User: Fold Roadblock/LC7 domain-containing protein from Nonomuraea insulae.
Amino acid sequence: MELRQEVLEEMTLLRERTPDVSGSVACTVDGLQIACDLREQTGEQAAALSAALLAMSRRMLIITGQGALEETLISGTAGFVAFYAAGPTIVLTVLAGPGANVGLLRLEGRKTAAGVAAVAARKH
Assistant:
């Protein structure tokens, strides 16, 4: 099975395990979309922005000495967007609705990022 399909399966499992999750996108750290589970046609734009935010988040942690990146969480009036490093080459972006259980989002987002990283490691 190809990388895109296996990553999409991990993302589908995330949505099934976490009812507040409304979609996700996985991309390379260069911003190229790998797999998209978003209802809207915004995957390419989300991928590019995800890569940029991951780079900024990592850089901020380096210059402030706060350790390695676990996640970046953005809270908006209509929901949340969480970003995870899925190994050294992939970014996982997860969208959740307003009132989402943020603890569950963080737990399941990290678990999915680890699954995506494992898939990528097997493929390379």
